[in-house]
Amino acid sequence: MKSSADIKKRIKSVANTQQITKAMEVVSATKMRRAQELALKARPYAFAAFDLLANASAKVSEKEKLPALLTGNKSKKTLAVIIASDKGLAGSLNANVMRKAQVLLTELKSKGELDLATVGKKGREYFGYRGHKIVKEFVGHGDYVDITELHELHDFISSEFLKGTYGKVVFVYTNFLSTLRQEPVVRQVLPITRQNLIEMIGNLTPQTGKFSNIEDSKQKTEIEPYLYEPSRERVIQELVDRLFRMQLYHIQLESNASEHSARMVAMKTASDNAAEIVDDLTLIYNKGRQAKITQEIVEITSGSDAVV
Fold first, then answer.
1. pTM
2. 286 shares a domain with 155
3. Among 20, 22, 9, residue whose Cα is nearest residue 281
4. Same domain for 255 and 137?
5. Which H or E run includes 129?
6. What are 60-88's pLDDT values in tens digits?
7. Residues 181, 119, 21, CA angle at the centre, nearest 5°?
8. Which residues pair with 136 in a beta bridge?
9. Other beta carbons less than 10 A from residue 241's beta carbon
C-alpha cells in the first residue's frame, strides 16, 4: 500500500488536472454556444437559397446554358475533402470522421482515380502517417470561421473542377445535430444536382423550430413558382457560385459546432472522472490515516499496560 504522502501527492495531481479540464470545459461551452448560434443562423438562408436554385435549375429549357458547377464535366477523377479539427481532446469526434473517410476512400479507389485534400491538422496527420498522398491541405480556419477564411478552399476546388481535373467533389465532415449528438456524413458538393440540394435541405433542417418540417420543405422545393428578372439563366449564373461558397461555409460551421460540442462533453467527462478519483483517493487516505491513529493508540495503551 502506498504511503500517505504518496496518496496526498496523487490527490493534488488529480485535483490540478481537474482544474484544467474544468477550465477547458467552460471555454469549450462558450465556443460551442457561439458556433451553434452561427450554424443555426446560417440554416434559414441556406434553406431559401438551395430552394431557389433547385426550382430554377429544374425548369431550365434546352436553350438556356447552365453553369459548369451544375452540369459537371467528363472527368472520372474524384476529390475527397476531409474536414477534421486542428486540435485534439474532442472525444471520438476525429476518430469517427477518419473512420467514415477511410470507408469512403476504399470505395472510391475501387471505382477510379482519387485525390485527397484535408482541412485541419488532425486529418493531415492521420492520412499523412498512413501514406496517403494529400494534394492540398488547409489549417487554421478558426473557432468561429468567417466566410472570407474559405476563399483559398473555394478557389482551389472551383478552379480544379472548372479545369476538368475532377468530375466530382465530396466532403466528409461532422454534422451538428445536438450538443450530445454529432454525426459524420459524406456529402457531394460538386457537381451541384437537384437531388443533392434536396438532401442538403433535409440535413440543414433542425429537429424543432421554424424549419423542422422536412416533408414541407421537399414539397416546396418541387412546386414553388418563381418569376425571374432579367432571366432565369442570368439568375442561376450569379447564384450558383454564391451558393457553392455558402455551402462550404455551412459545412465548416457545422464541423466547428460539432468540435466544440464534443470537446465540451469530453472535458466534462474528464472533470467528473477526476472528481471521482479524488473522492476515492481521499477515502483511501482517510482510512489509512484512521488506521495509523488507531495503531498508535493501541501501542500507547499496550505500553501503558506493560508499565503497570
1. 0.78
2. no
3. 9
4. yes
5. helix 121-129
6. 665 667 777 877 888 888 899 999 988 88
7. 50
8. 117
9. 13
